[in-house]
């Protein structure tokens, strides 16, 4: 079978699929995601719930033989359209590199080289590697780029530029690095949106928690009377704890009045949200209070700000904090879709040329 004809339904594999943010974006763009790889059990359960037709390798990628997987998936070298992945980035996280080093010593930092093992075996037409900005300054990505060049891949000039997801349809301020490579020439950059989507666009139509019959939206945590009073008095639509009279400040804020000013802050309806992190439903972790209601955003609202579908299921088997971590760690599907759409256009044009 001609490999281009086989690729009329453009195929992809997601190597570090987590809860499925990258996969969602690929599917939205038009890719047929064949398989995923995920080690963590609850993230894998979430992925399987939402993508039941995919083959999921629930394993440590370091233990997998890409040649065996290629045989199981019935691919020959060069037939896979896209190999994509976001290797765990905790070692590059800004929260762990405040000493100004690019990364800390973390064995997960080297998982990007396991992605390259799959590149060597599958020889995919295109490759997508997404990660935090710090990876763009790390020697590992230079080694990866050098090997991709040696293997005949063409990489765009903007590969190591840091991008803000708000420029690509995500109602959230989030900086990411995305490397895209093709064996068949440059892939165009997606056009930035004219007007960023806002918090209002993402969550203003959600019902008051308790009225939705959605387990991810209806739960509001109990808080102390002091915390409730503080939240009630923070000005609506973008207010901060700095706006409060000192008698409502917490002891820790009195000790460090200039530290972490976004904590216990409200989002603004007409702006993008701050970066959705693993602490996204805890107002002590950032500006995660609802713009109007006296509460933190819910898990469902956090997922919507990440651009997950509104019916996307997240397992609560390890509790709500772990669900928040899965949501915060996920790739925004809309950001991936914007770039994956350009890969689809690139592959489609190649297919047309091959068939003529």
From TrEMBL:
Its EC number is 2.1.1.37. The active site is at 89. Coiled coil: none annotated. The keyword Methyltransferase applies. GO terms for biological process: DNA restriction-modification system; methylation; negative regulation of gene expression via chromosomal CpG island methylation. It is an enzyme of class 2 (transferase). Belongs to the class I-like SAM-binding methyltransferase superfamily. C5-methyltransferase family. One of its GO terms (molecular function) is DNA binding. It catalyses: a 2'-deoxycytidine in DNA + S-adenosyl-L-methionine = a 5-methyl-2'-deoxycytidine in DNA + S-adenosyl-L-homocysteine + H(+). It comes from the Bacteria. This is Cytosine-specific methyltransferase.
